């Protein structure tokens, strides 16, 4: 099994959820009546960033609950919360999507297919990340289909229920050289997704793991020699390992507008998504993308990212997701804002939704769940997250995620 651990990430808690599902939302039942549960035992605290520090604060007076009571003819409870959400043009059973997972070995092969298959069966939107085609191939002409992009696309589409979900195929500078979007758009395997409006292309400007840098892959000496004429290589790792780095791309406001315009013109049947890293001008970049016609704008907080990166980047570079959300809210967030960054449970998801997000992305948590159980791990994790989200939204006296707002969260450090 791949090593998916990360400092501060609640790996064992995610694995427990993947094993036990909704029961993991509660303390051990055998301890009921014998143990006092409080802050010291809170299993949901995992490192402490500004988003974790926020409190969800239900009001005393709940006029929406009264309105719901009148509509239903009975007292409503958490089971009356409707989580179905439109995410970048795709209908999802809850405000959750599976974040971009690219060519890293943790996301490829059997694990990548298991993740795609479970996400498809759930009807969750799935993002296929950068560099899959340059590293693993597209899946034709003898390429290993299980590791290639086409293998993930087929695994997802074969399990997808009618009217739910969709795939967003991400493109970096190297993907553009490999004409990834052209390959997908012209592939008969993608036609059912195109015909039902469930295919998107995501323009990647950066990611939370390494803002300002392109994708990075570690190669052995043999693979590096084969790719030396095509990619930038640097022998800085030692031990026969070579670093392959992509260029990050160059963007200005006008370049971004033109890129989105080209996507609209060249791929008129596909949705347009744009992914932003947590830069200091993230609110301005989101505004430009939305005004240019992006169906969704994704912001990857500095807490996010599963890709290879220098240690200084995840530790010291980029804005935390909470600060991205604050800046986006102050400027007016895009109509469909998607966010990622250590998402794994309902409390953190509800806070992000209250601060203006339309949906949250599962990255490392989705991989851990699929690694724990390739058949049902992600399904159980999502079932647990959905239960928590319903309970938290109901506790706020509301019955759909879109009704959440800034008044639903509080922290003295988050004005």
TrEMBL record:
Pfam families named among the record's database cross-references: Glu_synthase
Positions of region (Disordered): 1-26
Domain Glutamate synthase: 200-370
GO BP term, example: glutamate biosynthetic process
Domain of life: Bacteria
InterPro entries in UniProt: Aldolase_TIM, Glu_synthdom
UniProt-recorded Gene Ontology molecular function terms: glutamate synthase activity
Similarity comment: Belongs to the glutamate synthase family.
Protein name: Glutamate synthase
Organism, as annotated: Streptomyces termitum
